[in-house]
C-alpha cells in the first residue's frame, strides 16, 4: 500500500478533529478526499505529510511509519498545503533551486528543468512568483512538491479559486502525475473527482462515511451522482 491509515485520531484541545479514521490507497491510484468544511481533510493531510503529529493511531507511507520514521516517510511524500505558501519575492527557478537544495538533490539543474516541463511552467520560469497568476503559482507549488520525485503526492485543494481554464490545466497536470504516483487530492468540486479520481472517500465530522472506487459509484448507489450522494450523506449527520 502507498498510504495506510489505521484508527487515526487528532484532538485539538477539546475538539476531536479525527475520530479514529482508517483507509488505504493502492499504488498509482488517485484518491479524491471529499468532505464539508471542517470535516478533517486538511488535518489528515498534514498528518500524512509529517507536518502535524497525530494524537493516536498509525499512518504508513510506502510502509514507513510517519511517527517512528518521519524523515524517511517524508522522502516518499510530496505535499501541497491548502494555502500554498510560496516565497513571492523569489524567481521560479530560484525557489525550485532552494527546495532542491533542502532535499539534497544531486543533479539540481536537470531535475528542475524536468519538473518545470512536467508542470507546464516553461513560459513563466523566469518570472518572480509574486508576478504569477494563481494557476501558475499552484504549478510552482506542485513543482516544489515533486522535486524529490516522491511516490506519494498529497494535494490539499489544489484547484480552489482557479478560473475554469486554469482549473482544467491543473487537473491535466494532476492526471499526468497520477500516472506514476499515488495521489491524495482534497477538493470541493465533485466534477473534479469524477474527471480524475480512481477512488473516493467522504469524510464528515472526523469520520469516514463512505469510500469506494469511482467505477463502482453506480453499482453501489444506483441513479445517484456524486454530488447528490455527498449532500445526502453529509446532511444526514
Ligand atoms: N489548529 C487548530 N486548532 C484548533 N482546531 C483546529 C485546528 N485546525 C483545525 N481545527 C478544527 O478541526 C476540524 C477539522 O479541520 P480541517 O481543517 O482538518 O477541516 P477540512 O476538512 O480541511 O476543512 P476545509 O474544507 O474548510 O478546509 C475543524 O473543526 C477545525 O476547526
Automatic annotation (TrEMBL):
Provide the family line: Belongs to the ABC transporter superfamily.
Record's protein name = ABC-2 type transport system ATP-binding protein
| The UniProt record lists the keyword NAD | no
Limits of the ABC transporter domain: 3-230
**SUPFAM superfamilies for the chain:** P-loop containing nucleoside triphosphate hydrolases
- Residue ranges annotated as transmembrane are none
Against PANTHER family, the record matches this protein to: ABC TRANSPORTER, ATP-BINDING PROTEIN (PTHR43335)
The answer to whether UniProt assigns keyword Heme to this entry is no
Q: What keywords were assigned to this record?
A: ATP-binding, Nucleotide-binding, Transport
Q: Which domain of life is it from?
A: Bacteria
Species this protein is from? Parapedobacter composti
Molecular function terms, GO-annotated: ATP binding; ATP hydrolysis activity
Pfam families from the entry? ABC_tran (PF00005)
Amino acid at each position: 500500500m502507498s498510504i495506510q491509515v489505521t484508527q487515526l485520531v487528532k484532538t485539538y484541545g477539546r475538539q476531536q478533529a479525527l475520530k479514529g479514521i482508517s483507509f488505504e490507497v493502492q499504488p498509482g491510484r488517485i484518491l479524491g478526499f471529499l468532505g464539508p468544511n471542517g470535516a478533517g481533510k486538511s488535518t489528515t493531510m498534514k498528518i500524512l505529510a509529517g507536518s502535524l503529529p497525530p494524537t493516536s493511531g498509525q499512518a504508513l507511507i510506502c510502509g514507513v511509519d510517519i511517527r517512528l520514521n518521519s524523515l524517511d516517510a517524508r522522502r516518499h511524500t510530496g505535499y501541497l498545503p491548502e494555502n500554498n505558501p510560496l516565497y513571492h519575492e523569489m524567481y521560479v527557478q530560484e525557489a525550485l533551486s532552494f527546495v532542491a537544495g533542502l532535499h539534497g538533490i544531486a543533479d539540481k539543474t536537470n531535475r528542475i528543468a524536468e519538473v518545470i516541463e512536467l508542470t507546464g511552467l516553461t513560459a513563466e520560469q523566469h518570472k518572480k512568483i509574486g508576478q504569477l497568476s494563481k494557476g501558475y503559482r499552484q504549478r510552482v507549488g506542485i513543482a516544489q512538491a515533486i522535486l524529490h520525485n516522491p511516490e506519494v503526492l498529497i494535494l490539499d485543494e489544489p484547484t480552489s479559486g482557479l478560473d475554469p481554464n486554469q482549473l482544467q490545466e491543473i487537473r491535466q497536470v494532476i492526471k499526468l502525475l497520477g500516472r506514476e504516483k499515488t495521489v491524495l487530492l482534497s477538493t470541493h468540486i465533485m466534477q473534479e473527482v469524477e474527471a480524475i479520481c480512481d477512488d473516493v472517500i467522504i469524510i464528515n465530522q472526523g469520520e469516514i462515511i463512505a469510500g469506494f472506487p469511482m467505477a463502482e459509484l453506480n453499482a453501489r448507489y444506483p441513479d445517484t451522482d456524486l454530488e447528490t450522494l455527498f449532500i445526502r450523506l453529509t446532511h444526514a449527520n
